[in-house]
Structures are given as C-alpha cells and as structure tokens.
Amino acid sequence: MKISYPFLPYLTFIHKKSRVFSLLLLASLSISCRPDTAQHFATEKIDLHQEKVVLWLPPQPLPVEKQIPLRLQLPAGVTPELSELGGESMYMGVSPVQWQQGDEGEWHAQLYLGACTEHQMTWRLTIPLATQGDLPASVSATFSSEAN
C-alpha cells in the first residue's frame, strides 16, 4: 500500500523560501545596525613633544556620545600611564583613559566624550609618561567637541 502526500512538495518549497527570507532579513539587519564609524578614524596629528610624542585623533570637532579612537606614538622604552580627560570650558569631572599597547612604540585608547549643556566644548587630555630620559613627566593636549 503506497501513501501519497500531494502537499509535501509545496511544504518543501515554503520551507526553502522561509530560509532564504530569514537569511536576507538577518543580512539587512546586520547592515542597518552597523555603527557609523566612517568619520572616526585617528587622522589628525598633534605633536606633544618635539615629534617624539605624537597623538593622533579624528578631525576636530570631535563628536559627543560616540566612541573615539586615539593613537599615541612614543619612543621605545616609554609607556603612558593612566591618563585623565577633563573639560576645559566647563567642569565635567575627570575621566580615566587607559592605553593598550599596539605595535612597538604605539598605544591605543578609546575615548567617550559626554554631552553637555554647551554646544561646543574644549577638553584636555593629560598623559603621564613612565620614562627615563629627556621627556617630560607628562604631556597634554586640548581639543574641541561639538554636539550633533
């Protein structure tokens, strides 16, 4: 006795279509949920001490409430210690900035600037240096931010 299921090919077709639809939906969500990082590359160079200590950050004014990459170039044997970020134009407290070593003499950190009642802000980043030589004990840079 042979049992026939005439609707079975139809169910297989629907199952394949739903899998394709699910994959397309996931792909579109991953593209639309991707953070906007196009403008946040560390491309602006700030000389902090005689071309020996150089800070790279995105073009100013920096955006608020977004992650901002920083890159620090130091001579061999010099390490940045826990740094501090504070508001210059308005007191915003002090935020720590922790550096992670990349390639030789290169350090990376992520910065997050808080929003303020002022549309434009000036910030100061102070970087203490563990060094034995002719470098200062700390260097600092000021930069600006602007609310979107």
Automatic annotation (TrEMBL):
It comes from the Bacteria. PROSITE patterns: PROKAR_LIPOPROTEIN. This is YtkA-like domain-containing protein. It comes from Pseudidiomarina insulisalsae.
